[in-house]
Amino acid sequence: MTTAKEIIEYMESLRNEEQRKILMRFFKTAPGEYGYGDEFLGLKVPETRKVVKSVVQDFVLSEIPALLMSKWHEVRLCGLLILVSKFEKLATKRLEHDEKAIRGRDEILTMYLRYAERANNWDLVDLSVHKILGHWLLMPTCLGGQDAGLHKDYKLHLLDELAASDNLWKQRMSIVCSWKTSQQGAPSWCLRYAEIHLHHPHDLMHKAVGWMLREMGKRVSMDLLRDFLRQHAHEMPRTMLRYAIEKMSEEERKQWM
Asked: Model's pTM, two decimal places?
């Protein structure tokens, strides 16, 4: 399979009606729910990953938009995971400063953001954003001009735009991308966007922010997490706070709550 049409036809042939109904309920696709209107084939993630593994080597970037524009949730996930795989191949330590690899990563990142609204459920965001956008934040880029000093400003501007969007999934991208930056010892991304989203009205963002704060504390510094909580615990939604302190001792959790 080397075209989007072939992949879509193959994935449609794997349709599982019983699993489809389960996924439609799980991802809240009923009227008024956050996933309203999404359509599923009924494929489990390992099945989609198997498709990705079989095609990614010879699959060209120009075919990916057709996957991302599909009505099928699993097909869009397939497109996103192909982008992840291609990005990771260009993001090894050996290729970090390679000019061709930098251009390739920038091209993938640009495509990912161009179709960001197609990652329109939490799993599509969470399985891709830290591995593309989060990793890109830590690496050299040609985007934002030739002056290397401007690249950090460009990256902040890009994330600020996602955070300020009226699209829930773009907002989620702006915080969940920090999973990767925290893994690499860079807490500022998490702290900045956790603060920006502190009063977000949606429960899915409360969970995401609390989760990223917890990861930042675990990966970088529990003291930094405690400093953040000392400033903001009194105003954080309870779900956000519970997620953030989940790895603390029972005694300390009680103190924060």
From this structure: 0.93
